[in-house]
Amino acid sequence: MKRIVFCLALIGYSSVFAASNFMLETPMVIAKTVGNVSGVVIGPDGLGIGNATVELLDESGKVIDSTFSEGDGSFVLENQKFGKYILKITVGDSPAYEQIVNIDSENTLLGEITLTANVVQLGTTEARAQVSKIRTEIDKRVVDVGQDLVSAGASAGEVLNNIPSLNVDQQSGALSLRGNTNVRVLVDGKPSSVPIDQLLRQLPSNSIDKVEIITNPSAKYDPDGNSGIVNIITIKEKRKGYNVSTTLGYTRGAKNSYNASVNGNFNTGNVNLFGSYSTNFGESNMSGFMENFDTNIKQDFRLPSKNTSHRFKAGLDWFINDKTAMTFYTNQNFGMMEMDNSSILYYPNIANPLIDKSLYEYDNHGSDYSLNFSREFEKKGHKIEFDGFYSNSAWNGDSGFNWQSARRGVSDEELALALGIYEQLQEQNFNFSRFKLDYTLPVWEKGKIEAGSQFQSDATENQLDNTQVLPFYENGALAGVLQAQDTYFDFNRTIFATYLNFGYQWEKIGMQLGLRHEFVNEDLLTRLTGSQDIPNETSDLKRDNANLYPSAFFTYQATENDQFSLNYSRRVDRPGVRQLSPIRQWQTANARQEGNPNLKPQFTDSYELGYMRTVGKRGNINAAVFYRKIHDQMSQLIFLDEVNPEIIIMRSANVDDSQSYGAELSWFLKNNAWWSMNGGLDLYQSTLKGFAYGGQRLERESTIFTGRLSNDFSLNNKLKLQLFTMYIGERAQLQGVRKPMFRQDIGLRYNFAEGKGTLSTRFSDIFNTFYSHSINDTPVHQEGTFRWESRTFYLGLTYNFGGKVKTRANKQQNQSDAGQPGIGF
């Protein structure tokens, strides 16, 4: 009986389950009333445009749904009600593209949507394309960094080194543009609280979206930087919904290092919350050898180091209405470094070498805060924008010195006193604030007036506590010792600026004229105290100056594919704190580097002629020639210590006027569906002038040639290969020459999980040929080699995940509406 009841119950349950299944499936036979819209946004060069804004509007102009295109230009708007709509595509601040779309099927395929040149000419696309692309705007070049394999896992410095016109000195970390290190470096349009050489080592490559190179900035920009401005724009997710990207990486050189990062946002439509975190940590090793042929002193040094950095970014975009928006964000940077400097100096005819052991420990914390408010008026292009920025940083260093053994002609007593063991404590506090107001007014049909004002203030406090004792001599004999002084350096600079730009576009000719006025006040206070043997000294140097900075830009669109440009601007290089502070930046037993408080600004008149050729849908070619006239040029020179000529001092000084000129050629070409290439050739010529120890006048012609070539191959839909070659030719310096350098890199990338995951590997400097070799002929004849970890292997993993928020709600609403004719639940 129990079995019969069980069977009847099982039959009844099966019938109910089948009926319910039939009821649930019944709506599927009803004609669908929602569908997907998809397409690909293509630029005039035939390449996909990523992060273009794609909106679906009803006939009244109300936004129904929106999304951003992927790196290859593709986009999908899911579950839209059948009907007639307006599809609107916007790239940055450029004019929008619009077309009518009829959604009447499950999948409406729009195919490739090719935008004309006027739609993307001023675009600010934020694509993470498969390879880097270079495009030219009226006053700058923009490099969309993309997912270059040779940049995977690298630092920002290595990314910039792969870009035409830019070079990063791997020894000092200094960035040069067109062969000149006097370049203004910004991050997201703002100065960084972290010194640039440190920032380029700490900032990971996968946090960089694009790089703007402005060789002749207009009057709207700060005039700082002899060779121009490099603006590093970091990634800020802004796609609707929630989006998260994570990266893990491992690098093996002589030592191991690691990197990790996470990027994400949550966008509800009116508010976009975004944030990121990145870290680099590990060990590295640098080494070198120097030989002084005048004194026959040889030096062998090793600089192993441990580095740790953390970078946080968090902020929000608030789209108050269609015309008003506000953005706030903060960056928090933390860095720590330990460097064990082991140096051995070999003196002729002395058995025991001098052993220099120095331990440097540094830590820094920098904070940036930015607030931007913009308001657009009814007339297109008519807007006002306020930007406030505040930055502060604290830097602390502890240097311990232990110099031992013998020096020619020096007694054991002097060694114990002058060398011995001592410590230097250094502290630096930096505060920077800037407030800008910019106003743009369209005039006539194709004209535009830009006007604005700016207040800027930066203040630095630098202190060095020194326990070193110094010998002093009378009649060539040791007479006693002196306690070294402590050094305090306070620097304050304020700048008041106003500017006015006027631009107009005729049929084929574009023009922009501008003038900027700046009033600068500087106060440099130096105090030497803390020694019972040496009197205290105080120096207070105050400087005021006012200057005008004109700019002019002209473009000529000869044909649809050919554009010429001609521009001029006046620039200034104001000495930085490191160049001014008398406190040494680094020190060994026989060399040190320090600043010069009497250093003056240098001014530059810069001229440039450019040409851009669009090669159908295959890519573009850019060429430029330039000329710069530099007044009161600042140069870093080598001096000999007046007390001990065996000690070399590196210090900046103003020298005579000089000039430089050069030519550049860069290209991006998509040869076919599986092979693309981009590269650049740079040739610079400059006249270097200065003086050496004893007042000797120096003048030298310097020619620099640099070549880069990157070939990218799509082996299949998931596997990519990249080959990168770089050559830096011999470079004459004021007091010597630096020999050529060459490197070859190879990278592979594999995409999985429908493109959400990426596995990358890179082998840099395969032949181990990328190192510095210099020869100096004044004030001493010496030769040196410096190596860093350029030959490395990298393995990295990136994964992206996310979903929609607003569109998910729309989807649920659409599905609910579509289900009403059915049985329902």
Written description of the protein model:
This protein is mainly beta. Helix content is 8%, strand content 62%. It contains 7 helices and 46 strands. The strands form 7 sheets. It has a 22-stranded antiparallel barrel. The chain has a 5-stranded mixed sheet with strand order 8-9-13-14-12, with no helix packed on it. The longest helix has 24 residues, at 2-25. The two termini are 36 Å apart.
Q: Which percent band covers the strand fraction?
A: over 45%
Which stretches are poorly predicted, pLDDT < 50 over at least 5 residues? Answer: 1-30, 120-131, 405-419, 805-825
Structural class: mainly beta
Which of globular, elongated, flat, extended, rod-shaped describes the shape? globular
What's the total helix number? 7
- CA radius of gyration is 31 Å
Biggest sheet features:
22 strands, antiparallel, barrel
Tell me, rounded to a whole number, the average pLDDT. Answer: 78
| Number of beta-strand segments | 46
Head-to-tail CA distance between termini = 36 Å
Report helical residue fraction. under 10%
Features:
disordered N terminus, mainly beta, 5-stranded mixed β-sheet, disordered C terminus, 22-stranded antiparallel beta barrel, 825 residues, 46 strands
Please write out the topology:
Elements lengths: L1 H24 L8 E9 L10 E5 L5 E6 L5 E8 L1 E8 L6 E7 L3 E8 L2 H4 L12 E5 L2 E5 L11 H6 L4 E3 L6 E3 L5 E5 L8 H7 L5 E7 L13 E7 L6 E12 L3 E12 L3 E22 L4 E23 L4 E23 L7 E23 L6 E22 L7 H8 L1 E23 L3 E20 L2 E6 L2 E7 L2 E20 L3 E21 L7 E21 L4 E12 L3 H4 L5 E2 L3 E3 L8 E14 L3 E13 L2 E7 L7 E7 L3 E15 L2 E17 L5 E18 L4 E10 L2 E3 L2 E3 L2 E12 L4 E8 L7 E5 L5 E6 L4 E12 L2 H14 L6
